[in-house]
Amino acid sequence: MTKSEITKALKQLERYGWIVKTFNSNRYNMTGAKGFPDHVLVNATKKELVFIEVKLGKDKLSPEQCEYLVALRGVAEVIIFPNEKFDSLDKLLEYLFNK
Q1: Are the C-beta atoms of residues 53 and 81 closer than 8 Å to each other?
Q2: Percent of the chain with pLDDT over 70
Q3: β partners of residue 39
């Protein structure tokens, strides 16, 4: 599974009322966003806000990412994917679909 495949799968949730935005800190227009989570999902109908940070292989959280995620946990759900609860993309999508 790649980050592109995860992004494509999350975008499927838009058919069910979610707004899905993906951020890539490597893009030239992302100045000041170092450490911001990879994905922001909003569902106004369900009053849900979810931040998802994807870590594949040996990729680890940076200090900037830790700072953002700790702050965001106070106002929204934060998911670091994959993890013990969501060890597959299907489980993550099912969880979000049923929120």
Answers
A1: yes
A2: 92
A3: 22, 52
Concatenated DSSP letters of 30-98: GTT-TT--SEEEEETTTTEEEEEEE--TT----HHHHHHHHHHTTTSEEEEES-SS--SHHHHHHHHHT
> Is 39 a residue whose pLDDT tops 70?
yes
- Overall residue count recorded for the chain in this entry: 99
Give the tokens for residue 66: 């830790």
Share of the chain above pLDDT 90, in %: 82
Tokens for 62?
A: 């940076």
- Which pLDDT does position 82 carry in this prediction? 97
Task: State the average pLDDT for the chain.
Answer: 91
Query: Quick one: how far is CA 91 from the chain centroid?
Result: 14
Cα diameter, the chain: 37
**Rounded distance, CA 37 to CA 79, Å?**
9
